[in-house]
Design goal:
Chain lengths: ~110, ~120
């Protein structure tokens, strides 16, 4: 089915471990984004990508790494997880351009760091 | 950079009543203001948006108003129904980036429609 999918949906890990959250979209959207959602903070942009091999930092990039070798995939890696990275992570994609700014979100990945 | 404040954080209304959620933004260069609805366990979905050259936009029971001078915009939901219960996020575009909008989101409003 077309859409944007995230995996895993739920993940529990320990401090210091590496974790990768996967994001896959089937629309061939140029732009992809990673947000984290925390109570009292709303949605905050971690990283975004305008195309394959083009990525840039958002508001809260520290502690995260992204890559985009293929247009359809945009994995987010926490190289050494910390408790402050416990959050719900949302991947999103958009067509880009200025006619529409609509973001299409995945269903989220809930990460708990113990 | 852009800062977006959203109020109230929670809102309870009786079914059939209206609900209003307000946001203010700081960057006068912002020119695109979307609203997203997030149902429990789901990702946010765009429900309505407005550009800075328009003062009001309506789509059935929902409307958005924009006051550029005061830098605030509001979401109005009339004749609320139980399925309107969700978390609503406002957002404002931040600057200009390569080819598309980047947003700063508000902190969200949890709307409960009481039957």
């Amino acid at each position: 089915d077309a859409g944007i999918t995230q995996s895993p949906r739920y993940k529990i890990t320990e401090t210091g471990r590496q974790v990768t959250l996967m994001c896959h979209q089937t629309w061939s959207h140029s732009y992809m984004f990673w947000y984290r959602q925390d109570l009292g903070h709303g949605l905050r942009l971690i990283y975004y990508s305008a195309a394959a091999d083009i990525t840039d930092k958002g508001e809260v990039p520290d502690g995260y790494v992204v890559s985009r070798s293929k247009t359809e995939n945009f994995p987010l890696t926490l190289e050494s997880a910390t408790r402050s990275q416990t959050s719900v992570y949302f991947c999103a994609s958009s067509e880009g351009g200025w006619n529409t700014g609509e973001l299409f979100f995945g269903e989220g990945s809930r990460l708990t760091v113990l | 950079g852009e800062n977006v404040e959203q109020h109230p954080s929670t809102l309870s209304v009786q079914e059939g009543d209206s609900a209003v959620i307000k946001c203010t933004y700081s960057d006068s260069a912002s020119n695109y203001f979307p609203w997203y609805k997030q149902e429990l366990g789901k990702g946010p979905q765009l429900i309505i948006d407005i550009r800075s050259n328009v003062g009001e936009k309506k789509d059935q029971r929902i409307a958005v108003t924009l006051n550029k001078t005061a830098k605030h915009f509001s979401l109005h939901i009339t004749e609320t129904q139980p399925e309107d219960s969700a978390v609503y996020f406002c957002a404002a575009s931040e600057g200009v980036t390569s080819g598309t909008y980047k947003y700063i989101f508000g902190t969200g409003t949890r709307l409960k429609v009481l039957a």
